[in-house]
Amino acid sequence: MGLMALGDPPADYASIAAVGLFVALMCVCIIVGHLLEENRWMNESITALFIGLGTGAVILFASSGKHSRVLQFSEDLFFIYLLPPIIFNAGFQVKKKQFFRNFITITLFGAVGTLISFTVISLGALGLVSRLNIGALELGDYLALGAIFSATDSVCTLQVLSQDETPFLYSLVFGEGVVNDATSVVLFNAIQNFDLGNISGAKLLNFIGSFLYLFGTSTILGVASGLLSAYIIKKLYFGRHSTDREVSIMMLMAYLSYMLAELLDLSGILTVFFCGIVMSHYTWHNVTESSRVTTKHAFATLSFIAETFLFLYVGMDALDIEKWKIVSQTYSPVKSVALSSTILALVLVSRAAFVFPLSFLSNLTKKTPNGKISFRQQVIVWWAGLMRGAVSIALAYNKFTRSGHTQQPSNAIMITSTITVVLFSTIVFGLLTKPLIRLLIPPRHLSREASALSEPSSPKSFFEQLATNSPGLPDIENGISLRRPTSLRLLLASPARSVHYYWRKFDDGFMRPVFGGRGFVPFHPGSPTESSVPLLAGNGN
């Protein structure tokens, strides 16, 4: 007995094995992903999915067909640990000018578009899925299906489009993805709490009102927490003593904003996204040089690990044998295929139902041809948003399982078909996106679009410039100040951009002196930034 007590209790063994396996697999994913970098079809997420599927299959055979999952798919793990770093990093690295220039289009696509696709899918499910007579499904289930499948996968989209090659498309699809994730989660929760017995006009108006309220308050919370972090770091100036504190307080405050939003029943996704945008605009410029590099890479790394883990997880969970057993006992294979393909068709149609009309609307508002979304770009936006990902799976688990078990066949088939649709759409649509972009927008257009829209304000490009002319730090500042008059003339010439002009004035006049930002580096004797301050100050005269 004494000897036994020295060893770890056997109960922990399973979880240690699971974590060990996942870490090993993630290493494999990164290596394979690196080797496939140049491949014109594959991307990181699909690699991770395939490896997950492969491992699931191996475990399945090793345990002679009993189980394939090492970890139970839990929503908590997904919504609390994996999603925040991904969305935050996306907001932190996004090209802000692009994002806000298309802000109206993005919110149109994200909010209105999701509502349209939700309606189309729900009605389609009512019309078609009910014909397959699967079993005990109520109206609430069909509405939930609509919400589950109107959530596009922003993670996979990020990997397929490149921010440097097609910045306009990237900001559109990606911004829409974030707003869309938030919208579908909000919709889903609203449907869960909605009394479907008596639907009236007043109820619907109330629903729309609460929806807008959620959107507004989440955004405000995100911006507020971002500004708070900027203010704290600027006032206390952590960098004097240690950069580790700076980096950790940035991370923790971002995470806190997400948790606060979830506590207050707001949308954590939107909150943490806007927190990321505000942090990259203010807080990032208040920290020391070394912290800037550190935060930029740390956030990207965290987000990368979370993404890899997610896709591995989805891949391994897809082969969980219980659900498939229940389904194969109850339904014929034809019915499963029919259900999955119906949902896929609905996804395709519903996506088209809002991308093309809304693009048309947003093109009507744009005066200049370069702000318009060309038909080819519309096709890419439509295609890139077809992928369904972990959000859909998490919502489906939430709706159709109770405490992780699926005893009812109708619930089991819903989950298996969700998994089928997610895998199929991610793999097939994901593989075809790169070639499709090459086909529709030839590389020579790419370079032109990128050069026209390059700007020094995002952390990424700022560093590239630092690297190219590191001895001449003043050159960057001079470059910016030389470009100013021309951009001002442009702003005054077109009224659409004058909003940007007034924001700049407000930003420089009020926000940056209080919260810090580019060009407002706090000067502290003996601080790590001291060496660069005289340079920055010297070129102002």
Q: Report the major sheet.
A: none
Hey, roughly how much beta strand do the residues contain?
Answer: under 5%
CATH architecture: Up-down Bundle
The share of residues in helices is over 70%
Helical element count?
23
Query: What number of structural domains do the residues give?
Result: 1
Shape: globular
Encode the helix/strand succession as letters: HHHHHHHHHHHHHHHHHHHHHHH
Distance between the termini: 80 Å
Which structural class fits the helix and strand makeup?
mainly alpha
| Uncertain runs | 447-458, 464-486, 488-493, 524-541
Structure overview:
This protein is globular. The longest helix is centred in the middle third of the chain and has 36 residues, at 201-236. The chain is built from 23 helices and no strands. The chain has a single domain, classed as Na+/H+ antiporter like fold, CATH 1.20.1530.20. Residues 447-458, 464-486, 488-493 and 524-541 have low confidence and may be disordered. By secondary structure, it is an all-alpha fold. Helices cover 76% and strands 0% of the residues. It is found in: Membrane.
Write the layout of secondary structure elements.
Layout: H1 2-6, H2 11-35, H3 44-62, H4 75-93, H5 96-101, H6 103-128, H7 139-149, H8 154-160, H9 167-192, H10 201-236, H11 243-263, H12 268-286, H13 289-317, H14 321-330, H15 333-365, H16 375-384, H17 390-400, H18 409-440, H19 443-452, H20 459-468, H21 473-493, H22 495-515, H23 533-538
Helix pairs in contact: 2-3, 2-13, 3-13, 4-11, 4-12, 4-13, 6-7, 6-9, 6-15, 7-9, 7-17, 8-9, 9-10, 9-12, 10-11, 10-12, 11-12, 11-13, 14-18, 15-16, 15-18, 16-18, 17-18, 21-22
Transmembrane segments: 13-36, 48-65, 77-94, 106-130, 142-161, 211-233, 254-279, 299-316, 337-360, 380-400, 412-432
Protein name: Sodium/hydrogen exchanger
Pfam family, one: Na_H_Exchanger
